[in-house]
Amino acid sequence: TAGITQAPTSQILAAGRSMTLRCTQDMRHNAMYWYRQDLGLGLRLIHYSNTAGTTGKGEVPDGYSVSRANTDDFPLTLASAVPSQTSVYFCASSDPPNTGELFFGEGSRLTVL
Amino acid sequence: GQNIDQPTEMTATEGAIVQINCTYQTSGFNGLFWYQQHAGEAPTFLSYNVLDGLEEKGRFSSFLSRSKGYSYLLLKELQMKDSASYLCAVSPDGGATNKLIFGTGTLLAVQP
Questions:
Q1: Buried-most residue among A83, B13, B49, B89 (CB within 10 A)?
Q2: With contacts defined as CB-CB under 8 Å, which chain B residues touch A44?
Q3: With contacts defined as CB-CB under 8 Å, which chain B residues touch A40?
């Protein structure tokens, strides 16, 4: 079972460039999330979606956008990357959406230079 | 505000028992989760507590006291493979999604 697949696994990006991190799940979970993980700060929620067609802002949404065109895909876009967006990004889903454990993808390591 | 505190690092000996504490202050409470994360890997679910008391699952147990804003994860019969970060996370509200708030994690080193 694939679960949640993220791509790319790692990427080096020049500041000012745009980047989309892809996330696909095959569990048919309604709720999906994007977190970033930084040393000393833990996992912080960027954006979330409780069902296809709806999204919401988490704790650190600035500089990021998401879309949820269907149940399976939840891409995260950085329109103009800055060095402070260097991080490891984790996509997750949950079922039931409001109380279930989060299932995480393997992460995407992004370095912005 | 939202605040979750746990020790940064702990060291324990193979075969021993270790307790990792977590205290939280959040605007609401809809459950507490523990996750394990090995270096370079994704977090994986360990336990969930929503009512006071102890939940046991094999070598791992988790305790919750809602009145004290306190939880602990107990690991018994430690093995070398238990060396990892342990993340405490709180579900702050009963909304449509489970927007977990994570602590910064406790890095556990198990020594022979």
A1: B89
A2: 102
A3: 104
- Amino acid in position A107: G
Neighbours of B5 (CB within 10 A): 13
* pLDDT tens digits along B16-64: 999 999 999 998 899 999 999 999 999 999 999 999 999 999 999 999 9
What's the gap in Å between the CA of B7 and the closest CA on chain A? 12
3-state percent helix, strand, coil for chain B, nearest multiple of 5: 5, 55, 45
Q: How many CA atoms lie within 13 A of B15 on its CB side?
A: 1
What does the pLDDT read at residue A31? 94
Tokens of residue A78, six digits: 């950085």
B38-57 core/surface letters (b: 16 or more CB in 10 A; e: else): eeeebbeebbbbeeeeeeee
User: What is residue A66's three-state secondary structure?
Assistant: strand
Q: How confident is the model at residue A1 (pLDDT cuts 50, 70, 90)?
A: low
The answer to whether B65 and B49 are in contact (CB under 8 A) is no
